[in-house]
Amino acid sequence: MGKATITLLLAACLLSACSTGGNSGNTAKGNEPSPSAAAQPAATAQAAATTEATASPEATPAAAGGGESTATPLPTETTAAEEVPVLYHMNKNYDIVPNDEATNKKVVLLTFDDGPKEAELINPLMDTLDKHKAKAIFFVNGYRVKEHPELLELIHKRGGVLGNHSWDHIVLKDKPEAEVKKQIEDVQTIVKEITGETPHFFRPPHGAGGDVGKKIAAANGMLYMTWSNGSLDWEMKAKDTGKTEKLIANVTSQLHSGSNILMHELPWTVEALDSLLTTLEGKGYSFVDPRSIELKMR
Ligand SMILES: [Zn+2]
To answer: How far is the CA of 66 from the centre of ligand 1 (A)?
Structure first.
């Protein structure tokens, strides 16, 4: 494949991000008129997400390769696992809820999908998280990890919590079980090879994992989630003005206790992040450590 082709594919990929399905995103309102959306049962939400996802397929990089995890393992540090008390669980709306009344419920979960892409994005993103003492889940795609194992290692070493976003970023819900299994489990394998750890969280591309995706995520010990607060960063374009203000407005307009905030590894999101986190803190919200969330929905 020529360099120009690769560049085009990358551009297509960047522009479409996770989003197409995302913006339909079950409980990810802001772009959906339904005021009762936040209270939607998961089944309805999932149906909404999957319908949209099918209607707007996203370019899948031809270089994705199908998921053989043949990346060369890098030397990894075995850092002692930090003990994080489990204080929260996820409800059927994909919100984060305290297990008991004594625990702060005014929290949000920060998530970044579709990486790893570039150290030039990951490092400043991590700098901002560190500044706010915040942890986040990075839902990665296997084909990107295979292309840049060093970037996965960078996220891991800088304290990012890794999540599985399937190998090829395809709509999984109508695929045969064997294919869904491979799409998910090959990511577990390559992340384990590179970091020594397997992801505990799964988010299907386009929010559309279907029953099979849920089953296979559970069989691999992962908590399945879509999101409950979409930043709509995937709808923004480089040439747009006022992206930081728009992103903050998108998140704050849907903000509620336990918001599961969907963002992407995109330049304007990285640029907006410090302001966004400051705004959330100003409204009294804290950032939940993903490791303090139970791995089973209830
Ligand atoms: Zn995605």
So the answer is: 17
User: How far apart (Å, rounded) are the C-alpha atoms in residues 288 and 183?
Assistant: 28
Catalytic residue flag (residue 186): no
Cα separation of 142 and 139, whole Å? Answer: 10
* Distance between CA atoms of residues 199 and 67, nearest Å: 16
* Residue in 148, 156, 200, 264 annotated catalytic: 264
List C-alpha distances in Å: 58 to 14, 134, 142, 169.
11, 31, 16, 8
pLDDT tens readout for residues 148-168: 999 999 999 999 999 999 999
CA 166 / ligand 1 centre spacing (Å): 9
- Enumerate the β-bridge partners of residue 173: none
> Other C-beta atoms within 10 Å of 77: how many?
9
User: How far apart (Å, rounded) are the C-alpha atoms in residues 180 and 211?
Assistant: 11
Q: How far is the CA of 165 from the centre of ligand 1 (A)?
A: 7
Those residues of the chain that have pLDDT short of 50 are: 1-3, 6, 8-79
Tell how far the Cα of 250 is from the centroid of ligand 1, in angstroms: 18
Please provide residue 288's backbone torsions phi and psi, each rounded to the nearest 5 degrees. -75, 140
* Residue 89 annotated to the active site: no
Residue 83 confidence (pLDDT): 86
What is the Cα–Cα distance from 246 to 117, expressed in whole angstroms? 23
